[in-house]
Prior knowledge:
The structure is a homodimer. In chain A, 43% of the residues lie in helices and 11% in strands. The first copy, chain A, has helices spanning 3-7, 32-47, 53-62, 64-72, 81-92, 103-110, 122-129, 143-153, 173-183, 197-205, 240-246, and strands at 20-23, 134-139, 159-162, 190-194, 209-213, 235-237. The longest helix of chain A is centred in the first third of the chain and has 16 residues, at 32-47. Residues 1-8 of chain A have low confidence and may be disordered.
Amino acid sequence: xxxxERCCYTRVMDVSAIGALTFDVFGTVVDWRATIIREGRRxxxxxxxxxxxxxxxxxxxxxxxxxxxxxxxxxRPWAKIDVxxxxxxxxxxxxxxxxxxxEDERDHLNRVWHRxxxxxxAVEGIGRLRRRFAAAALSNGxxxxxxxxxxxxxxxxxxxxxxxxxxxxxxxxxxYLTAADLLGLPTDRVMMVAAHVHDLNxxxxxxxxxxxxxxxxxxxxxxxxETPPAGAFDVWATDFLDxxxxxxx
Amino acid sequence: xxxxERCCYTRVMDVSAIGALTFDVFGTVVDWRATIIREGRRxxxxxxxxxxxxxxxxxxxxxxxxxxxxxxxxxRPWAKIDVxxxxxxxxxxxxxxxxxxxEDERDHLNRVWHRxxxxxxAVEGIGRLRRRFAAAALSNGxxxxxxxxxxxxxxxxxxxxxxxxxxxxxxxxxxYLTAADLLGLPTDRVMMVAAHVHDLNxxxxxxxxxxxxxxxxxxxxxxxxETPPAGAFDVWATDFLDxxxxxxx
Lengths: 249, 249
């Protein structure tokens, strides 16, 4: 099936029953990789550090899933993403020549996740979608991170929800169930929007509607992200504007 | 001390240390009484119900504190404000000639709290304040109520926080402490903004900064709200634009 055929696929459903869209953020709304590479290059130029910033971004993000898994499985108690990001960063400092950074500089670098840039059409797309549906973040990022990011990037959320509110990480069912409860809606009136199959499968498992949004450059141009077959989710969209068009927003 | 003298009072403090403002909502941001009276009159005209809508609004609001107190004291388990509002409403139907309303009509009336109108300068004031500080709701209203209200009234929150996230009601300390934790700030970098002394005292007790905003018409023109003496809180403001001016926003 070609991209063109897939992108036009919307499962027959009653769009008017949808009350809210919940959005994954890292990779779906914002381009973590390009932002980290850009800030890394700037830091490198200031400090005279020569590093492979793309490899640095990938290694940092690579530590993310294992760190969250240790919380999900109960191996360690709840910890915010800011804490997990910092632990992963500390483990990479030597390898990327960053051990000379001061504590303030390390903290500032760690907060690059609060400053991630949106994909080019994301802010406009969310603005269009929220004319028809309540638009909420539902991210593994903590509330402060998401609030700072929205302020910095101008993301017009109706409200910000986070795994932090369930003290568990997606795709644990409690995160999606907590979000639907806080939105005051049954799960089948909430649609999860994400560029990641495991996230959408988690949402689907509790009865949410699901929209896959294709972000082919999330991991750079050399590595393709996982793309689901048509029919796996309710909507398959090329970006947020396409999603808005498919949902009549 | 005259109003003019009080309104110019700002305690000497380091405004630049403030990272976020948290706002009480019912009475501070929105005029619950005027909105309920207006919707009541419209309902009355449609249904041929003659009632004292001001007395109805006051009686409904009058049940609010006792209902929350029963949760705060542990007399009953956690329940959202939507549930408490509905219980109070059900207890008023006979008295105000509303027993003929259908279930859908009762539910719609109960959700008037999701549709409350802001005070005239509130949206502009929050818009100005959030240029300098993160602006978050921190209300006893539940998340869905606050999200619907913000969408309906165009309130530009950076994020919505609620007592619901602590499963306790203000002025229980856990509500303020949960909010500061979610904002990622120590309590002394958060300023609570409210028209109610008990709310500001609750915030002050956990170390937050406090701004009193005078809303003389909250309870109508016949009943004055409690006003604190100058010096009781960090700021005494006549409205949100005055607060913005005093905080340099």
